[in-house]
Amino acid sequence: MFTGIVQATCEVVAINKKDGLNTLEIAMKPDLREGLITGASVANNGVCLTVTRIADDRVFFDVMEETLSVTNLSNLQLGSKVNIERSLTFGSEIGGHILSGHIHTQARVLEVSHTQAHFDIKLEVDPKWMNYILYKGFVGVNGCSLTVGEVTETSFMLHLIPETLKLTNLDMIKAGETLNVEIDSQTQAIVDTVERVLAKRANI
């Protein structure tokens, strides 16, 4: 489990492509590697990956073909920066909202508006996911727990503060790129339950 509070952006220093999977080598600073062991879970751009090896300052992750097909990890190149969050530990402060690290869909960046006063991103997703993306609700974007701004039938806005931009890779994105999206599980459960109840009443 994760909180959506990104701890650092780390560089992809190698990508070993094999049949059915890619092995990522991520350079991590000592504080991020402290206590990290093989088999631990780490969110990379919001995707829960298992540590397969640790060598010096490099941490290795295998990314299966299915994960590559549904996330933006397939777009990584040497030098790319990924948002990193270690898994939640008992007693840790939860500053964002609970995320599982399982990506539901990808969002396409429609617009990026960056001025001295604001940094806004407009994202487009498949309309079926907009049922769960609500104004002032939560959504996980590239592993970041963010509050949703204005919504339409197919898009939603994010209004980012300087601290988020400093700690994440969202300040680097451009129109046309894709970002990983994880829907808030509680919102999804409530919406699905209400829809089922209303559907039953309509059939009575």
From TrEMBL:
It comes from the Bacteria. Residues 1-97, 98-194 form the Lumazine-binding domain. Coiled coil: none annotated. The keyword Repeat applies. SUPFAM superfamilies: Riboflavin synthase domain-like. Lumazine-binding repeats lie at residues 1-97, 98-194. The keyword DNA repair does not apply. Keywords: Repeat. It is an enzyme of class 2 (transferase). InterPro entries: ATP_synth_asu-like_sf, Lumazine-bd, Lumazine-bd_dom, Riboflavin_synthase-like_b-brl. Its EC number is 2.5.1.9. This is Riboflavin synthase. It comes from Shewanella nanhaiensis.
